[in-house]
Amino acid sequence: MPYLKLHLQYFAADEKTEKATPKKREDTRKKGQVPKSQDVNTGFLLIMVFGGLYLFGGQIQEAMMAMYEKSFTEYIHWNVSEEHVFTLFLELTIEMAKALAPIMGVAMVAGIASNLLQVGIMFTGEPLKFDLKKMDPIKGAKKIFSARALVELVKSLLKITMISVITYAIIWVNKGQMMMTSQKSVEAALAFFARITILMGLASGLALLLLSVLDYLYQRYDHEKNIRMSKKDLKDEHKNMEGDPLIKSKIKEKQRQMSASRMMNEVPGADVVITNPTHYAIAIKYDEAKSDAPFVVAKGVDFVAQKIKEVAKANDIIMVENRPLARALYQHSEMDQPIDEQFYKAVAEVLAYVYRLEKKV
């Protein structure tokens, strides 16, 4: 039974039940693992591109007509040669680029904006690194039959259904005008089909954008689920952030040694050392230029107290035994800080006694 209980505790500690820490979130973000819906990009791109076609369609039509006219008024009379063919393709490519530049610019802005809205500014090359684990057929099979794959299948079917219904509805509503295009001019017929195409594109983009809200919420949920941490992970992370306890203890010991060494260097400049007499030692100095009140330059108990007294004796610093005052000063005073107001009278009496002794000497 004890073994079984220990075994269950081990698995409980390793279960991913805790929310990810800020450090874990930052680490996963550096790896390119962020909640993101591709449908947001697609929907936003469709709306912006078809909106751009609606705004710049007239300019594109004029540019295309100009190329068409020039082809049948100028290019048709050219001799077929290497130079003429090169010039023809170069000029047509430049004119085509000019005509489509606004749409391409809108598409680029839409792609960048939709990604910024979801993940913000992020640069990482981690997803591009070659990883043999990605080629593991067992993991690949698990992904195919996973809950995420099922969600993606349902989402794809829903998108196809929505776009099909929207497209069919628009065509059905405009079927009468569509049947009458044979009676219209070529320009009017093209304008009608262009208008219908833009309408279908905008409606499909809006539908995808609405669907992408649900998809983004699911992606966030799935991302949070995947980056959950176990209690063991939290302890390991805390240990890594805090450092090895052995190293920490060595650092603290080194800091104590440095502090003690600095204190010992200050003792020779003290005016008096107040002792317990065996357990406590507090070195006091009064310097009007530095502070209006006396301040502590060194303090310690036991071994450190003995060292303070040894340094004081070696430098002819007067030591005064006052057990209550020594204990109180140690507990309520800080290094290089003025003593508390409640000790002014007692310390003043000690300093006055020291100054009288020094005058006698």
TrEMBL record:
Claim: Cell membrane is one of the keywords in the record: yes
Disordered: annotated segments: 16-36
Transmembrane residue ranges: 40-57, 99-124, 145-172, 192-218
The UniProt record lists the keyword S-adenosyl-L-methionine: no
SUPFAM superfamilies: EscU C-terminal domain-like (SSF160544)
Keywords: Bacterial flagellum biogenesis, Bacterial flagellum protein export, Cell membrane, Cell projection, Cilium, Flagellum, Membrane, Protein transport, Transmembrane, Transmembrane helix, Transport
Positions with biased composition (Basic and acidic residues): 16-30
Membrane-protein topology: Multi-pass membrane protein
Location(s), subcellular: Cell membrane
Function: Required for formation of the rod structure in the basal body of the flagellar apparatus. Together with FliI and FliH, may constitute the export apparatus of flagellin.
Family assignment from sequence similarity: Belongs to the type III secretion exporter family.
PANTHER family with a match to the protein in the record: FLAGELLAR BIOSYNTHETIC PROTEIN FLHB (PTHR30531:SF12)
Protein name: Flagellar biosynthetic protein FlhB
Species this chain originates from: Halobacillus amylolyticus
